[in-house]
Write a structure and sequence with these properties.
Oligomer: single chain
Strand content: under 5%
Order of helices and strands: HEEEHHHHHEEHHHHH
Structural class: mainly alpha
Shape: elongated
Helix content: 40-55%
Length: about 300
Amino acid sequence: WYTPMHIPSEAFLANFSSLATVMDQKLDFTPHHVILDGRALECHGHADEKDSMCYNMCTNKGRYCSVTHGFNHHGITGKQVVTESLRRMCIITHYGIKDFWGYVNHFTTLCQSSDYFGNEQCIEDVYKHSGLEKKDIDSCMDLSGGTDDDVENTKLQEAMEASSDIIQTPHVRINGLPFGWSFSIRSTFEAMCFGFQPGMAPHVCSACGMCGDPIACAARSPMHCDSHDGQIPEPSKGGSQGKKKKGGAFKHFVWITILLSAVGGFVYYKKYMEDGDNPAFNGYSLGEALMSDTA
């Protein structure tokens, strides 16, 4: 379960797609979209009112909603998120999971920023890069109920009911059980491999299961681990030890100035938060977050 606006979820899907593709013969990967109940949030009938807290948060006149509160999602509306969720559901319905992976990869690269998230031209570019037809997706979205009228959308309704007990995203279930480990590509991949019966796991599990970077392993032909998988290379040390670098005193002065500025900034920030002068965080409740109309 995820929402398209959640950057860690999008990054996970974009990276995990290569593993899911090589496991597709034995892995049934089903993306689910978290959709909030607009009636429960009292947004039904108020989503188009500019003075309402539900403004731009929902589709279908307030039936299906998404919260976009947070600095990572500035400028992205809940209505755009729900619409993008419906679009992806239709891609799976009309084209299948492989084309879904291709779409997500291109969308993350081209349209993930707040400037382009709901931009129709950007989405059409993603369609072209993914080999998808806009008319097919638009037809599916309209047939399910669309997003503008005060009517039930069958796909969004089903997604909303299926995500009613999800309290945090991303949320992963393997063989019906919640995945409780630290959320990462490697840990999720290992858990999926462990979920197969003995002798039934795909080849990538045995070839890349112990790799520091299973994605890099799966991309090789034949698949194999490399001793440097998962390692971050150390920066190379330039210059020779016998020569004194020019401008050393000035560089030390600059670094000391930056360090003092950082310490001063931290002290100010800590005092600022302790004094309760920050309206964006002080006393901010979950209920207010759910009803926030700020992007």
